Amino acid sequence: MNFDYAVIGTGIQALVVLDRMRALGLNACGVEPESRTADGQVHRLPFYVHRGHCYAERELAGPLRDTYANWQNMIRRLGVKIRSTESYVGFTGDSSRWTQTWDALDIPYAQTSLKTGLLSAHRLSEAYAFPHMSFDGRELLARLRQANRDFLMGGAIRHVSRCWQGYRLFVGDRLITAKKLIVCAGAHLPGVLEALPDVEARLPVQTRVCQVLTMRGPVPNASIVVPDAQMSIAPQYTADGSTVLLYTHGANPIRTDKNHRIDIARLELQLDALRATLPGLSDTGRVRGIYMTLETESAAFGGKGTRTGRRFVEQVDDDVLCVLPGKPSFAMNASDELLSLLNAGRRSAQETECAAEPSYFAAARIRHAFEGAQHRA
């Protein structure tokens, strides 16, 4: 089976990339080398798409605003059910850094005085409403797989080698050739790169530990972020359609041997912040659970000053591009950057071919002139 591109990965980023490439008519396939390991992240985290309302930095808010329409089009085309559009951003202090960014980027928002539902008896200094999409991430994955099922190859990658066409991959019981590889492997990115022949690049990743508190019962089907208090609450949906609110608080630490277990001190801070900020929700969400989940990102994103100005794609070889792991919200931005690079590469190849044509015709004219001169002689 011959393709121009093989997208390697099992998660939301790989499927978004493949879906958009196929929609543009590119000859691409998806290779799912693991047993859908990334499903765990979607199963254990809420999935909603926003216009950048979490960020005060224009370099972060702007890209999310720009790709919101692309998410809308994909969700509509795949028939994914939108479960909620009720979303808020609250502040315990001054919100001017954020509102100035929203105004500069024309991100829609409206101040609200509500103290019902998710905002019941809130003690925020300011609260704003946003119309954003919340849906079941598992449904999105299932719809993407269904839409691209004829081009998804599942199974262990048993061997990878170079060939004149680019790369030859033995995936399960299939032989695939591809001119270029697109690696969207998340936490498995270093291992995939090590398996590729003649590729020396090493792109380190890091894993962050996220402590999630679940709230059940008669909870609102809505989301809220309190950026200056590092609070995030968003819905997830069970098999019967009921809502579970997932609540995180504080900056997620990089994983070490000491911090991948439940942190009781952090849990107490989490509960104290909830009671102090959203006491109505604290009283309503009585049935609670707690678990740890892991989020993988490029190590280049974790240092001081690297939140802005980031790249999403790294070209590690002439025929290998890597989509760096990060937040699912930026999956559309990463695919935009990738498609732009691929398009630039195709234009460059076409220009090279066009530049070569005059040389060919010039050589033909010289040959004909030489043959004519011999004939006349």
Keywords:
9 helices; 8-stranded mixed sheet; FAD/NAD(P)-binding domain; disordered C terminus; 377 residues; elongated; alpha/beta
Write up this protein.
One of its GO terms (molecular function) is oxidoreductase activity. It comes from Trinickia terrae. This is FAD-binding oxidoreductase. The radius of gyration is 25 Å and the shape is elongated. It has helices at 12-23, 39-44, 58-78, 96-105, 137-147, 189-195, 264-277, 279-284, 331-376, and strands spanning 2-8, 28-32, 48-49, 82-91, 110-111, 126-135, 152-154, 157-163, 166-171, 174-183, 205-216, 223-226, 231-237, 243-249, 287-298, 313-317, 320-323. Helices cover 35% and strands 30% of the residues. It contains nine helices and 17 strands. The longest helix is centred in the C-terminal third of the chain and has 46 residues, at 331-376. Strands 3, 4, 5, 6, 11, 12, 13, 14 and 15 form a nine-stranded mixed β-sheet that branches. Strands 1, 2, 7, 8, 9, 10, 16 and 17 form an eight-stranded mixed β-sheet that branches. Mean pLDDT is 86; it is low at 359-370 and 373-377. By secondary structure, the chain is α/β, with parallel strands linked by helices. The chain has a single domain (2-344), classed as FAD/NAD(P)-binding domain (3-Layer(bba) Sandwich).
